[in-house]
Amino acid sequence: MLNVLISGVGGQGLLTLSRILGQAALSKGFKTYIAETHGMSQRGGSVSVFLRIGEDVMAPLPPEDDVNLHISMELIEAVRYSITHNERTVVVVNNKVIRPSLPGVRIPSIDDMLEALKKSTRNLYVTDASDASLRLGSTIGANIVMLGFVTYLLDKSSILSKDLVLGKVLELGSRELNARLFEAGYLDATGKVTQETIDYLVNVMKNAGSG
């Protein structure tokens, strides 16, 4: 089975992202569990969602250090949840920093955060989803750009097809804009994702045991 962690802060569309992936997995016939486990989803609060996809899912939360795919909408939250990584966890992170609302809180530099993530896994992918969304005319579409990137991974590893996930995205409305956001993320992934990463995800599903 595939254990997915989605992290970020409230207002970034994490729950929409997780719902689309979950609906696509259910449409393919997979058992699927979604669990919002930390934080609160109001704007600015830390949010994490676990999504488990597979034939033998029995519980909503994966074992510790058994996250196969970490999708993070924000760098601080990506580092916060790097404790869930193992050396092969596929990490897709939006190159975006949202400063904590508490005054006087010091945060590491972007370079330091990226270096910490590189130490936590050998499958790290950084994408400028927020910038891409703005270029395409949306202030709130970074989650759809991220979804496009992640769909490339799932499509090439024969877990969820591009057409299936895109169909769920288009059900949101604003079809032309959302299609462009999705395609931007998918295209970005085509130039970055290695065959080693795809092979890992294929093996995760092939070797899935009981949940």
Name some characteristics of this structure.
8 helices; six-stranded mixed sheet; alpha/beta; single chain; 211 residues; Pyruvate-ferredoxin Oxidoreductase, domain 3
Helix content: 40-55%
User: Helical element count?
Assistant: 8
**Whole-number radius of gyration?**
16 Å
What's the level 1 CATH class?
Alpha Beta
- Tell me the β content: 15-25%
> Which residues sit in consecutive blocks of at least 5 with pLDDT less than 50?
none
CATH architectural name: 3-Layer(aba) Sandwich
CATH topology: Pyruvate-ferredoxin Oxidoreductase, domain 3
* Distance from first to last alpha carbon: 8 Å
Shape: globular
Superfamily at the CATH H level?
Answer: Pyruvate-ferredoxin oxidoreductase, PFOR, domain III
Number of strands: 6
Query: Structural class from helices and strands?
Result: alpha/beta
* Mean pLDDT rating: 90
How are the strands of the biggest sheet laid out side by side?
2-3-1-4-5-6
Largest sheet: 6 strands, mixed
